[in-house]
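Researcher: Next entry in the queue.
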Amino acid sequence: MYNASDLKVGKKFIMDNAPYEVVSYAQKVMGRWGSIINIKAKNLITGSNVPKTFSDHDKFEPADIATKNYDYLYNDGTDYYFMSQESYEQVSLPKETLDGAEYFLNDGDKVMLQEYNGQAINVNLEPTAILEVTETPPWEKGDTATGWRKPATMSTWLVVQVPLFVNIGDRLKIDTRTKEYQSRA
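Model: Structure for this entry, 185 residues:
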């Protein structure tokens, strides 16, 4: 059992019969009256973020979230399909629950899916992903007025700002949390 003051960033807990993960945490001490805890929590099933305020006496059950290996297969525009590496069963997740993870999925990728009560609910991404540049304007002398950056479209339709020396076909390391260029792969 967690107290509200235990709900630090990254902690998974049950609220309103659904699993949540803490995205942000702030605590205000009110002297002898205890503390007020303000969090922003992400519903791991729907992907929605909700702000909540608790007293330090509120209690929560920990969420039993398992992480299992899957292969990403394909998408049909609304749902994304994965196959379990253990049982070979296929599961699908709606695009809304992926919360931007779809920009880092290439056909055949090995991914980790979070499961709650035996049901896949979310993709657990690595901190970085390797993506290929499919479209970017060529660099021309005098382009330095733009801050040494230009837009590049990746193979997954993600658009990131990259240095001027990046060309079509380059493989880049992209941060999956901020969706920013890190380096060439």
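Model: The domain at 2-62 is CATH 2.30.30.30 (SH3 type barrels.).
Researcher: Noted, moving on.
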